[in-house]
Amino acid sequence: MRDQDQSLYDVYKDYFSIGAAVNIRTIKSHKDILIKHFNSITAENEMKFESLHPKMDQYDFTNSDLIYHFARTNNMELRGHTFVWHNQTPNWVFEDKNKQRVSRETLLQTLEQHVSAVVYRYGEGIYCWDVVNEAVEDRKTEYLRDTKWLQIIGEDYLMKAFEIAHKKAPSALLFYNDYNESNPEKRKKIANLVFTLKKNGAPIHGVGLQCHWNIFDPSFDDIKRSFEIYGSLGLKVQVTEMDISMFEFSDRRADLVKPTVEMIEKQATLYEKAFKLFREYKEVINGVTLWGVADDENWLDHFPVRDRKNWPLLFDENHEPKEAFYRILQF
Ligand code: HAH
Q1: Is 134 a catalytic residue?
Q2: Span 54-75, pLDDT tens digits
């Protein structure tokens, strides 16, 4: 029988690394849990385009350096998140000084310079990158999300992004990353996208499945089928941003003070079943990352309902292990 004195990443050492999203506060406030239980980290925001490169002629590595040094000091893997995304990317990337849309060549050049500067700074200290994040449209009738990257560069922007990333970071593992990955319609599009990229010779090494789930959705059958599909593409698979919200996505209730016993049990059961499934896919899965450390600080406290508390992670508000933690530790 395992107990909380055991390290989560140590228990999983023959399977995959165990990661957490961190920020400049949690590398201090959650340091003890991170060092004991996690051997990989991802910067929640600090390595996004707007954080690293707020103005054309200005890079800011202050916060990303703190995260990089935390990983190095504690011998942890560091995932890079993210180069090409429709969010948290400053306007100057897409518009010139006169507010005119830049050309395809200019945007590709901007991306190349950005990737080059970031890789020059961190080199092999970042072992993999989410090269493109969330390029697939959620609406059933459309395929690629209508973004400025797509509008300005055209449909080959993903291929170009992977080529640039590979040219500048030849030893990094390169991922396509997305959410709603277990929704049958979207999953078909994501699998098709990465399969086509690979078939066309893109230097893509893996697919990142965000796995932002809740205790009602997706169904475990859909999750299982998704791993069968993604696991058969001939690429590495990573779970990149896992959490299990207590609320269905469209549920806007904001009156819950603490989760019920049933909610905690449902969450623990889903974490348990999911990690059992991940272990079965250990040949293709080379990393599982949670999108946070403990329930006292997590992005779902603000999203999609402002100021609504949520409890999606493995450790509680007092940094104590939750039922879900014990279930994934004991197998
Ligand atoms: C993710 N989007 C992003 O990849 C990550 O960078 C951010 O910090 C948080 C979540 C997920 C997402 C979602 O679950 C629902 C709607 C839009 C985006």
Answers
A1: yes
A2: 999 999 999 999 999 999 999 9
